């Protein structure tokens, strides 16, 4: 598709999509550069996009990042391994618990710490609950991006419940610091597990509501189907990960293909775009993958709660101020000399990875954070050329970035 | 495939340009010569046995004598991953071949590495800073990089600490004078907000503009007083431009924007706009 055309789409009653290109003479006037952001509400934070437009048509754009840069990698070099854990919350602050999971796994691999089985189950439960909480938010806020305010409020209702659930467990509603090297901060109580199951019931019931308001809504489909198409080849070449990659038809999920934790013990599937609705790799599919992953994560949490091993008296801490960790974790963590690990995990927005280089000190020599949103947003110019300015907002929203992780 | 197998595969094609193959429980990586880096990348991507179609991450590590550029690759089809490394020639000669021609994903990662380490990727289409402002000076993740003293009139942490120290010393001297030669160390330990205004119409202004000259990193503990006979209000050294008896500048409302710069603190000349 050239930049001289805009797309026109017609959706049949059965959801099938016919699309054709029409010359957009009426949408074009003269070239100018428009700044979107950094305060634009549809940019999920402080993203600034410089857009070269011709009338309503986007000729080119460039994301300008760095407004939220805190040089976390330098901070990590100056803190002990365990001290950096709360800082990882601030990367992808909508799914803080998943960041902690990856960092904890990286440090544990480097220092050779084993995790008791019950703690692994607890970690799986909270990590997948974090994904539910994050995807509920993403599904709702994507409606907000393209002008539907109601689904956001509906989804935020459940997000609030998830926040309260996390608050009961960790003390924080958004930034948790729940993981410890070798374990977690505290054990799950039976009461909390009951509340968690009730929460899952509610989300499962309300998912139909979300899908009716967004996914299958005719206006929503017309705004998102066929827009921002990211081909399979381009997605791989640009290092896209997460739901955006699976929406381009690539069957890849680190949880399944490079199994870590306990994910190989549960029955779940990886949703991949199959082209039955919309175009493979368009905004609608990215949204639809997220909505499906919500259901899969709920499945995993339920199974993990079912299989949760009984409490081990050896693990029970001596006081309520002690963390619930493997008792063999050394008091001072030191990595081996001249060693490095590269550990990645599937976060709600893609693959987060930590590259830790150790020089036998109690702080990492180098800590590289590979944020998924950083790689994903880099493809924005490629997939937005030729679409309208209003579509650009839909494309940014469908990539689902969190600037805390882009800028680090 | 393990890193050993991938290293062997590269040795077949590149010979002794493969410098080191490392494979253990923690990590697997292959180190090649800098000149062969792009070739090795292209081989790994195109060889049907490796099929590294995804560049997962590209970064650098400061090895003091040189910079080590590390690329983490993974294959979706083959479900394996490896890291490929190469060194820059030295700490000063930081040129490194760009792999944007192999994976477009390297574009932003190389810009970030340039931003943080100053490694210059040759062949990158538009190598410039990405996270930091374009007029920033220095390479933050280098091991010898200190805290900047200021940026566009915003004092850095070293400057702020120096100012705070000078401010506390100033207060200690004021108290010692008012209460008849109390030990400055003891007086300085008191909270700054609790001190009554000094006579002479120039009270100690907690939170206001510090009167000490900004000495980043090297603020004097006990400011030398001219002639050894302190007058009210005492001034540290002769450098503070505030004359005795001058009205105190009004205290800025809390939370209302950036605090005013202390007197004598010069803003740098305005630089060109970020372009």
Structural summary, described in words:
The complex is a heterodimer of chains A (408) and B (275). Chain A has 408 residues and is of the alpha+beta class. Chain A has helices at 72-77, 85-89, 96-111, 117-145, 150-170, 190-213, 218-224, 232-237, 243-247, 254-257, 283-307, 372-377, 380-384, 389-399, 403-407; strands at residues 5-11, 17-23, 31-36, 48-54, 57-64, 179-180, 183-184, 324-325, 339-347, 350-358, 366-370. In chain A, a hairpin with a 5-residue loop joins strand 1 (5-11) and strand 2. The two termini of chain A are 35 Å apart. Classes of the chains: A alpha+beta (408), B alpha/beta (275). The interface between A and B is medium-sized, with 36 and 32 residues.
Summarize the structure.
The complex is a heterodimer of chains A (408) and B (275). Chain A is an alpha+beta fold and 408 residues long.
Observed structural traits:
heterodimer; A: 408 residues; alpha+beta; 3-stranded antiparallel β-sheet; 11 strands; B: 275 residues; alpha/beta; Beta Polymerase, domain 2; two-stranded parallel sheet; elongated
Note the quaternary state here.
Answer: heterodimer
Give the strand content of chain A: 15-25%
Which segments of chain B are poorly predicted (pLDDT under 50) over 5 or more consecutive residues?
A: 186-259, 266-270
Shape category of chain B = elongated
Low-confidence stretches of chain A: none
Give, in order, the helices and strands of chain B.
HEEHEEEEHEEEHH
Number of helices of chain B: 5
Count of beta strands of chain A: 11
Measured between the Cα atoms of the first and last residue of chain A, the distance is 35 Å
Q: How are helices and strands ordered from N to C of chain A?
A: EEEEEHHHHHEEHHHHHHEEEEHHHH
User: In CATH, what is the homologous superfamily of the domain at 3-133 in chain B?
Assistant: NADH:ubiquinone oxidoreductase Nqo5 subunit
Radius of gyration of chain A in whole Å, from Cα? 22 Å
Shape of chain A: globular
């Amino acid at each position: 598709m050239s930049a001289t055309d805009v797309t026109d789409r017609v959706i049949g009653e059965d959801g099938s999509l016919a699309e054709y290109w029409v010359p957009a003479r009426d949408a074009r006037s003269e070239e100018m550069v428009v700044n979107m952001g950094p305060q634009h509400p549809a940019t999920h934070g402080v993203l600034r996009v410089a857009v070269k437009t011709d009338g309503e048509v986007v000729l080119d754009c460039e994301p300008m990042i760095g407004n939220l840069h805190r040089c976390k990698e330098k901070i990590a070099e100056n803190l002990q391994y365990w001290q950096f854990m709360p800082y990882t919350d601030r990367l992808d602050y909508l799914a803080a618990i998943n960041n902690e999971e990856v960092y904890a796994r990286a440090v544990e691999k480097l220092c050779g710490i084993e995790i008791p089985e019950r703690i692994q189950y607890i970690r799986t439960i909270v990590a997948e609950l974090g994904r539910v909480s994050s995807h509920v938010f993403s599904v709702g806020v994507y409606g907000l991006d393209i002008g539907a305010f109601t689904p956001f409020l509906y989804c935020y209702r459940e997000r609030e419940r998830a926040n309260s659930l996390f608050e009961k467990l960790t003390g924080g509603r958004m930034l948790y610091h729940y993981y410890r090297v070798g374990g977690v901060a505290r054990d799950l109580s039976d009461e909390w597990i009951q509340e968690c199951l009730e929460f899952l019931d509610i989300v499962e019931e309300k998912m139909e509501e979300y899908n009716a308001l967004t996914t299958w809504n005719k206006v929503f489909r017309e705004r998102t189907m066929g827009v921002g198409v990211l081909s399979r080849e381009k997605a791989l070449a640009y290092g896209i990960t997460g739901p955006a990659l699976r929406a381009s038809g690539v069957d890849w999920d680190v949880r399944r293909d490079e199994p870590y934790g306990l994910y190989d013990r549960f029955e779940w599937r990886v949703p991949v775009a199959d082209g039955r609705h919309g175009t493979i790799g368009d905004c609608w599919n990215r949204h639809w993958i997220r909505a499906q992953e919500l259901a899969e994560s709920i499945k995993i949490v339920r199974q993990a709660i079912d299989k949760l091993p009984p409490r081990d008296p050896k693990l029970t801490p001596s006081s309520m101020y002690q963390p619930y960790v493997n008792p063999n974790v050394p008091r001072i963590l030191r990595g081996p000399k001249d060693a490095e690990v590269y550990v990645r995990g599937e976060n709600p927005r893609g693959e987060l990875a930590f590259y830790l280089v150790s020089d036998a000190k109690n702080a990492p020599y180098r800590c590289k954070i590979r944020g998924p949103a950083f790689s994903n947003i880099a493809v924005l110019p490629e997939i937005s050329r030729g679409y309208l300015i209003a579509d650009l907002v839909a494309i940014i929203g469908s990539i689902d970035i969190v600037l805390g992780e882009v800028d680090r | 495939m393990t890193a050993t197998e991938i290293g062997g595969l590269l040795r077949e094609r590149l010979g002794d340009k493969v410098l080191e193959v490392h494979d253990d429980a923690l990590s697997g990586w292959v180190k090649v010569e800098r000149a062969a880096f792009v070739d090795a990348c292209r081989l790994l991507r195109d060889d049907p046995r490796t099929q590294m179609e995804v560049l997962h991450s590209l970064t650098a590590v400061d090895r003091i004598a040189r910079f080590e550029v590390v690329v983490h690759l993974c294959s979706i089809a083959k479900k394996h991953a490896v890291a490929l490394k190469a060194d820059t020639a030295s700490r000063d000669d930081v040129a490194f071949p760009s792999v944007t021609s192999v994976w477009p994903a390297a574009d932003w990662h190389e810009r970030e590495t340039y931003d943080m380490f100053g490694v210059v990727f040759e062949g990158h289409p538009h190598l410039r800073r990405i996270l930091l402002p374009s007029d920033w000076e220095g390479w933050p993740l280098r091991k010898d990089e200190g805290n900047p003293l200021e940026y566009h009139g915003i004092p850095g942490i070293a400057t702020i600490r120096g100012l705070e120290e000078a401010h506390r010393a100033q207060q200690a001297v004021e108290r010692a004078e008012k209460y008849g030669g109390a030990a400055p160390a003891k007086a300085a330990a008191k909270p700054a907000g609790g001190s009554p205004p000094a006579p002479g119409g120039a009270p100690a202004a907690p939170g206001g503009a510090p009167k000490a000259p900004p000495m980043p990193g090297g603020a004097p503990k006990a400011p030398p007083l001219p002639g050894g006979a302190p007058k009210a209000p005492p001034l540290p050294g002769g450098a503070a431009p505030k004359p005795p008896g001058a009205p105190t500048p009004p205290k800025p409302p809390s939370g209302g924007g950036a605090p005013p710069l202390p007197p004598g603190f010069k803003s740098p000349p305005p630089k060109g706009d970020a372009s």
